[in-house]
Amino acid sequence: MSGKLKVTVRVDLECSSAHIDVRGQVDERNVLAVYSLAQRANSLAPGLEVAIDLKHASVDAAVLWHLQACAVSGFLPEYADPLQAECRLTILAPEPQGERADVVLAA
Known about the structure:
By secondary structure, this protein is α/β, with parallel strands linked by helices. 23% of the residues lie in helices and 27% in strands. Strands 1, 2, 3, 4 and 5 form a five-stranded mixed β-sheet that branches.
């Protein structure tokens, strides 16, 4: 799999939320692109809710942990947002590998 990400950004007309849909392999080499998109979306309007949708991506565990830590703290990493503007971030995590919601295993 290449290091390229496929990303779609949607912002609602009232500028109350942004949805960043990420597909591909998110790792330490390209996560800065995800942070940069979140920072740009966050700068559009004060209080904007930014959702990073990783449900259709493959994400390294450490990277996912850092993204979730940003959501909890309300700030992006300083290297991605030197001004440290407050960010209402939500991370929509991928399902763990091998698990699907529509599969039920019987004992």
